[in-house]
Amino acid sequence: MNLKEIFKTSFDMFLKWPKVILVKAIVELRDKYLQAQDRINQLEKENAQLKRELEQEKIKNTNKEVNKPSSKQAEWEKGSEAGKDKGKKKPRGRKRKPRKGAGNRPKNKTPNREETATVDKCDLCGKDLSGQAPLESTNERIVEDIVAPPEETIVTLVTQQKKYCADCQAVITAKLDLALPGADIGLNATVLICYLWVALCLPYPKIKEYLKTFYKLSVSTSGLSRHVIKVARIMHNVHDEILNGIKHGTILHADETGWRVRGKNWWLWVFGTPDTAYFTVDKTRGVKSCPPSARGNILRSPGGRWLGRIFILDM
Fold first, then answer.
1. Most exposed residue of 14, 193, 266, 271, measured as fewest CB within 10 angstroms of its CB?
2. Distance CA 69, CA 60 (A)
3. C-alpha radius of gyration, the chain, whole number
């Protein structure tokens, strides 16, 4: 059956229908066509939206794979392989005991001051609550802080009295307890300078900057150097006590490392026993660097060789 015969058959059939039924059929066909057209438009919009979302998802996945190192896997992707460990119980290993002092331990110190934080307005809507009475329930926190940096240094004028001793026939001047003899830097600053230089290994420029920034104390790097040398001279007796401790030690531990002195290579030596340690800087790396009081002891240090009367053992 060709197209001509189809139209002829349909036309003959429509001629047999009453006019009312024919109009009703045409109206129903028109409504169904309009509904189908609306449905097609809606599906086309949804299809376009899904295509855009799919394209954005592809871009996100591409960026995530590009920015991630090839040798590592993201935390949220671990164990996400389909059906790899599904239904299997993870083996439970032996639980380790927590390290001593680990965790956020509560403060057990007695507070030496108290403060009250008030509610002046609502954090959600901004309503003024300053005139409202607070509730009976409160929260308490312990906050531990350090002392605020001073705005200025403590400058003290000390008047040293003098008295005449008739027995000795000499004028005695009162000694100063706030600073070392002949120094204009106080003891508190001296202790801090020595700690920063010895314990924290900070250079003089950094110590100068730290004192100026937090304590408003102005001192030059050369002044810091002279002050540390002054402290070292006062500690000379302590050095002798350390050498005596090394002298009476049975086994002496030692090690050395390179040390720059005025642009030249020197050696920093450390000699120690279980109770004492002695540091010295020397030009050479040989036996002459060992303190004379320690020679003759058995020395433990990397090397494994004889040096005079000192036998060096491998640690």
1. 14
2. 16
3. 45
DSSP labels for 79-141? T-STTSSTTPPPP--PPPPPPTT-S-PPP-SPPS--------B-TTT--B-TTSPPPS-----
- DSSP states of 153-209: ---------EEEETTTTEEEEPPPSSB-TT--SBHHHHHHHHIIIIIS---HHHHHH
Is 254 a domain residue?
yes
SS3 state of residue 152: coil
Does 297 fall in a domain? yes
Whether 221 and 267 share a structural domain: no
CB-based burial, 39-76: b 16+ in 10 Å, e otherwise: eeeeeeeeeeeeeeeeeeeeeeeeeeeeeeeeeeeeee
pLDDT above 60 for 79: no
pLDDT at 305 over 50: no
What is the pTM for the complete model shown? Answer: 0.54
How many domains does one find in the chain? 3
For residue 22, give both structure tokens.
């024919």
- Give 267-286 pLDDT, tens digit per residue: 888 888 888 888 888 888 77
Q: DSSP letters along 11-50, please?
A: HHHHHHS-HHHHHHHHHHHHHHHHHHHHHHHHHHHHHHHH
Tell me the C-alpha distance between 126 and 305, whole Å: 79
Domain stops at, among 196, 216, 234: 234
Q: Is residue 23 assigned to a domain?
A: yes
Structural domain boundaries enclosing 286:
239-313
* DSSP label of 315: -
